[in-house]
C-alpha cells in the first residue's frame, strides 16, 4: 500500500529509488540526495516483502517525525520523488514491482531511476571506476553525445555468471528484475550502479551521486564539499571509543 497525499501532482516527475545491494551504495546515495536537496517526506509504502522497521528521522536531529521501511521524499523544484528503502526483500518481490509500476502509471511519472551496486570481482574491466548503467529511456538511447559526456559504462554481464538474465547484476538486489518489469510495462527506466566491496562505501555513494548529477543537473557544484551528509551518518560505525580505555 502506498500512502501519499492525493493532491500532490507527480506528472512528469522522476522517481529515484535504491535496490538493497552490496555495500548499500544505492541507499547511501539516496540519503545524500535527500540531505543535499533538502527533500521533504510526503508518505510511505507498506508491503509484506520488506521487513518492517521504525526509527527516528535520519535527516533532522530536532525532528519528532519517524522513518519507516519505505518512505517517499519530494522535491518540487527538481521534479523528483525519491523512495528510500531501509530493509531488504524477504520474499517474492512481484507484488511490490506491480504496485510500484501501477503507482508510476497512475501518477503519470515520467521515468524511473534505480540506484544499486554490484560485487567488484564481477567487473569485466577492473581498472574502470566509472558508473555503469542499463537504460530503456529513449532520451538517453537516442542521444549519443549525452551518453558520451556522462562517461557511464554500459553494463556487460560477467561471462562466468550462470544467470540467463542478460541484465543480471550480481549483488544488485531486485534492480535488474525491476528494470525488466518496468521495460515490459513501457516505463522508461535507468539503472545506475557501482562495482564495489563491502565496507565503508561512502566514496562509492559519492561517485554514484556525481554520475547521476551529471545527467539530471541537480546541483551546480557536485564536489564532495557541496554534498551534505545526513546527521544519521555521524556514528556510521558505532560510537567513538570511550576515554576510559586510555
UniProtKB/TrEMBL annotation:
The keyword NADP does not apply. One of its GO terms (cellular component) is proteasome complex. Keywords: Chaperone, Proteasome. GO terms for biological process: proteasome assembly. Pfam families: PAC2. The keyword Zinc does not apply. InterPro entries: Proteasome_assmbl_chaperone_2, Proteasome_assmbl_chp_2_euk, PSMG2_sf. Forms a heterodimer with PSMG1. Belongs to the PSMG2 family. Chaperone protein which promotes assembly of the 20S proteasome as part of a heterodimer with PSMG1. PANTHER family: PROTEASOME ASSEMBLY CHAPERONE 2 (PTHR12970:SF1). This is Proteasome assembly chaperone 2. The lineage of its organism: Eukaryota, Metazoa, Ecdysozoa, Arthropoda, Hexapoda.
